[in-house]
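INFO  loader      accepted 1 record
INFO  loader      residues=475
INFO  predictor   begin
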Amino acid sequence: MANNDKKAKKVVVIYAPPVMISHLVPLVELGELVAAHGLEVTIVLGGLTDDAAAATSSSIAEGAATAHPAGLSFHRLPYVTRPRDVPAHDYVLQTFALARASNSDLREFLRAASPSQVSALVLDFFCGCAVDVGAELGIPTYFFFTSSISGLAEMLYHPVIHEQTTALRLRGHGGDDHVHAPGNPPIPLRDLPAAYADCLSLFLGVAEQMCKSHGLIVNSFRSLEPRATDAIVNGLCTPPGCRTPPLHCIGPLLKLGEAGTNRHECLAWLDAQPEASVVFLCFGTMGRFNMEQTRQVARGLERSGQRFMWVLRRPPDQDDGKLNADPDLDALLPDGFLARTKDKGLVVKSWAPQREVLAHAAVGGFVTHCGWSSVLEAIMGGVPMLAWPMYAEQRMNKVFLVEGMQLAVVMEGYDKEMVGDEEVATKVRWLMESDGGRELRERARAARRRAKEALSDCGESRTSLLELVEQWKRN
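INFO  predictor   done
INFO  writer      dumping tokens
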């Protein structure tokens, strides 16, 4: 970014959290989109502790840089020392701590680049502590929220929720109590992220940091979440005495595979299936079941009688230190399952091109962990969802999807020890065969139409992005 040929150009700096793939991918997509509109974009990777921690982030960065070499670059801040007082297993607390440890290096990087050259600093919420760096250097600073508008409304309102909810009840996530945030359906306490209790002061700090920013950018679109959007814009979600920054809804930020790339074999299998006949099961990069839960899912799929494609990852109780190893299907699945279901089902080991799968005409339902990127991919494919949340903010997303947007129904038992095979069979059959499932599918297709309208030339998301880009060009 400090090269002589770039000194006269305005730059947008995007500050990404360390090794948080679900956040890094949409941040890179935002960078690609902004660069395509004529601004220089530098994505800064901070909070990395060693070469191994940097490897995953670098692979995403290199892939994006190769596809879009003009206007998009990456900068890795110096490695930092992992704080000794942060538990090794608490990745949320570690991410906040490592981002804070990189603040001084970010400051020096921005100073070397000349703050007058930087028209905007865009932060992921894990990097919110850098809002003070932007203020110190006089750089307009924005937050990019990688989840839903409803989730943003809840986060902004969380200081008020905290005042209304005792720390003990919040930590216990107990009973049938609910929290209420403007623009959102009631959220059961048990569906709040566990990290809210473990890292409460940090999340309360994020809400305060967001209110200090020049704007909030969110990976969603207004017509998908109108109540939450109106609540934020009307200042109902920020605590008393705090300003509400401008809201910029620019999503969905999604990109299908480049034309001409090698096509995954699972897509050829889908080509041979009838339209909207296949249930797709996929639970993200961290979503894994133990052996018994895996067998319950298998038995449920077989009992349902429906066509399915299932992306199956190695169970945590079979790791043997090999986190990325493919599962042993013969050892993992019920005896004879693959042979009995070979005419109707496909089990894919570890990974499938989810965006392309959900965009395929043969897919008629999606069993999902409710990660926001997965939700947007389902919406863009017009695919209804069965919600099986697992970790992080996914339980809140489940509430928004089921009670708010009405694009999903819940897989009962997600919050218990086991989802039984009968529940899997019943819900999959309901989704694919019942009148209720057909109504859900129609709502999903209507959401797809609204998403495409939002991204069209005069659509709400495209207009919001162009306004933001023009503002940054003038800064």
